[in-house]
Design a protein that fits this description.
5 helices, disordered N terminus, 408 residues, 24 strands, mainly beta, 14% helix
Length: 408
């Protein structure tokens, strides 16, 4: 028993040591390169995966905090492969943090959406943009690509000639520049490293979930003496979709596309009274809605495992109603005569484009399996109408939904 206890206790201790060691490796994978050239591992404090920094806040393994500007250090690296160096770019007087996207004999640099090539002796800017030209008494804007000539000069030689057609088709984008420089180094047999290779350009994740919608009805057009009440203000729904998020250079922007199905059994009670007649009606019906929500999202907060975002978009709805019971009765006030009619008097708008906003939380945003919790608000103008005799009333709906989903 004593030996068993000792073995178990030793195993627990080693497990704790291993766990702490793994945690330390997980935390301290960022680093800074001090002015002396010493590389110190620690943590660069950040919420999103930015591609540009003016100042970095760094915590070393002892828990000490430092704020570094470009003049203070040679550079820094992040655990996802991004690496930044302190450099003076053409046309500038002071050092800035420049992202080095590819390192080789010709290194690719990026700063504020502009790209540069660093060779052995100097840094050369890759230039592109619109220019105004006068033609036949008209001013035209044309897109110029001087960087094409710059690339051909920098890659002059046998490999540059072989890649000439590809250089001519190169666009002003990080992906195209990384591609052409990679092929140049391979052709020349030179070593190189792409630092952003492990960072996805964008993440595409399907999700599947369900929720519940509560509706509030407001008057769009109704005469006095008219009342219409829906018995059921709620309906469940299921929704599947695709989440597009974590763009490499736009970490706070994302999109949601979905396809959903909502359903409910409901009842409308209607009444219209004036001095001459009294109209009443009841209609029971099955309501279904096939819809496609589209949202542009903006993430405003992110911690290690939770990301919060706001969404602005629209619901494209296609609705159907199937009456199961409908009756209207007309009573003439002066002689109390009543006429009954079994006929549907409810009309729901078949197709809608409804503006919508939402606030959501993405749990485990950086992991393979995550969860979504959203509160959605949707406005449906003139959603339905009901007609009693010649009197017609129409109504708007404000819909609030609580949605839970698994994101793969």
């Amino acid at each position: 028993m004593k030996h068993c206890f000792l073995i178990c206790w030793t195993g627990i201790v080693w497990l704790m040591v291993l766990t702490n060691s793994l945690r330390a490796q997980d935390v301290y994978r960022d680093f800074v390169i001090l002015s002396s050239g010493q590389q110190v591992y620690g943590q660069v404090i950040r919420d999103f995966d930015y591609s540009q920094y003016r100042v970095i806040n760094f915590i070393n393994p002892l828990g000490e905090k430092f704020a570094y500007q470009p003049k203070d250090i040679q550079g820094f690296g992040l655990d996802n492969g991004r690496i930044f160096y302190s450099k003076i770019l053409p046309g500038m007087q002071e050092k800035v943090f420049v992202q080095q996207m590819l390192t080789g004999s010709l290194s690719l640099l990026s700063y504020k959406g502009n790209f540069f090539i660093e060779g052995e002796k100097e840094i050369t800017e890759l230039v592109a943009g619109y220019e105004k030209i006068e033609f036949d008494s008209r001013t035209l804007r044309t897109y110029k690509k001087p960087f094409i000539g710059t690339l051909k000069i920098l890659m002059a030689g046998i490999c540059g000639t072989q890649l000439s057609n590809l250089i001519n088709r190169t666009n002003y984008s990080e992906q195209d520049f990384v591609e052409i420089l990679s092929k140049y180094h391979l052709c020349e047999g030179l070593d190189f490293k792409v630092h952003i290779a492990q960072i996805k350009r964008v993440r595409l994740s399907p999700y599947l979930g369900a929720g519940y919608t509560l509706t509030q009805t407001s008057v769009n057009n109704r005469t006095s003496g008219r009342k219409d009440v829906l018995e059921n203000a709620g309906m469940p729904f299921v929704l599947m979709g695709l989440k597009v998020y974590q763009f490499r250079n736009l970490p706070k922007i994302g999109f949601d596309l979905g396809l959903g199905f909502a359903f409910a059994n409901n009842r409308l009670d209607s009444e219209y009274i004036n001095p001459q007649v009294t109209f009443t009606g009841t209609e029971e019906f099955k309501f279904t809605s096939v819809y496609a929500p589209v949202f542009l999202n903006y993430s405003f907060h992110k911690s290690k495992s939770i990301e919060s975002y706001l969404g602005l978009g629209a619901f494209f709805r296609f609705n159907t109603t199937a009456p199961t019971y409908a009756i209207r009765d007309l009573t003439t006030n002066y002689n109390a005569a009543t006429v009954l009619e079994e006929h549907s008097f409810l009309t729901w708008k078949k197709s809608m484009v409804n503006p919508s906003i939402k606030i959501g939380t993405h749990i485990n945003a950086g992991k393979p399996l995550g969860f979504l919790v959203e509160l959605q608000m949707e406005y449906a103008p003139s959603a339905f109408s009901a007609q009693l005799g010649l009197n017609k009333a129409s109504y708007n709906q404000l819909m609030g939904s609580l949605f839970f989903a698994i994101r793969y």
